[in-house]
Amino acid sequence: MEGMKLYATAIAALGLLCATGVGVAASAGGAAASTARMHDSGERDGATDRHAGRILHLHNREREQLGLPMLRWSPQLALEAKDWGHKLARKGRLEHADASVRSGTGENLWMGTADAWPVDTMVGMFIDEKRHYRHGRFPEISHTGQWADVAHYTQVIWRDTQEVGCAVVTDRGWDVLVCRYYPAGNVWGRMAY
Prior knowledge:
Structural class: alpha+beta
Keywords: Signal
CATH architecture: 3-Layer(aba) Sandwich
Organism: Qipengyuania aquimaris
InterPro entries: Allrgn_V5/Tpx1_CS, CAP_dom, CAP_sf, CRISP-related
Low-confidence stretches: 1-47
Protein name: SCP-like extracellular
């Protein structure tokens, strides 16, 4: 049993390390999608709804501590996140959706053993990266010298981001958390806040 816990922890850590916030390409062209993002489809999903309030609270609690504007929940982004989460779970690995599919949104990813992780831990792993954060212009934002070590965190706290939509998908023995952010953060040469 102890070996399974270690394996699950290693998989989750690998998932977090592999899932960097967003790259330069994902940040380009965000303004073009603004009108589409502001009009939610109104479709609902039980699993997404169950976690929506908690995920939004965790994001906004961190932003509030820094005096940043609160994020709004986007059901449309949550639906997009859910679709991508199912694709990732079927593949059994994390990879970011192509920037052209994300239409100016940023993306944070997490993966772990199904039903083994509370949503607070999933989002908490994004936020825990703040221990390596160094306030500066992207990509010079990490005490480790590697921007990817803090890219989940900086996407959570990126001042210009206004909306978030996430989904926790359980499929094929995996829980996959996909969060989409509009507009995308981690923009080259800019500061998080």
